[in-house]
Amino acid sequence: KGLVVTQLDIEPGECIKVKGKIESDAEGFAVNVGKDSNTLLLHFNPRFDCHGDVNTIVCNSKEDGVWGEEDRKADFPFEHGDKVEICISFDETEATVKLPEAEFKFPNRLGMAKIEYLAVEGDFKVKSIKFS
Ligand SMILES: C=CCO[C@@H]1O[C@H](CO)[C@@H](O[C@@H]2O[C@H](CO)[C@H](O)[C@H](OCc3cn(Cc4cccc(/C=C/CN=C(N)N)c4)nn3)[C@H]2O)[C@H](O)[C@H]1NC(C)=O
What we know:
The chain is an all-beta fold. It has no helices and twelve strands. Strand 5 (53-63) and strand 6 (66-67) form a beta hairpin. It starts with a strand and ends with a strand. The mean pLDDT is 97. The site of ligand JB9 has 14 residues, from strand 3, strand 4, strand 5 and strand 11.
């Protein structure tokens, strides 16, 4: 299992900064934010080679344990072994994932007003987490 943080109280406009290293042989990793593991505002899932996807970021939401419609992004600004800083923020309409050279948006389908849960899974070694 990866890192899981619960009992958070992240409000719109605040950001979650996850710094870490992508494994040199990574197949994929995911950063999940939401209320809990069954209720995700955003599942941000870069795939190097898994589930039949190659170098594709798959985003989705999860409501009562049920995945929503996937949203596949065009850009893939990750490479094996990269040290990355991923900044996630949100407001009532959308979540934003900011990277040094890329930014992704994903609709706030659940109308979530607070992030209480963060999980980082897969081939990613977390170095630090900052909330600001
Ligand atoms: C074409 C067939 C039907 O359509 C497919 O149907 C699959 C099942 O629904 C979807 O897949 C699902 O998509 C979901 C988002 O929508 C989640 O990502 C879910 O994963 C949940 C999950 C997370 N986690 C932890 C984790 C996360 C990242 C990496 C690792 C491990 C790396 C292992 N590294 C090694 N061994 N080195 C582990 N485990 N499961 C995934 O199964 C595919 O996208 C979808 N594909 C398309 C094109 O439509």
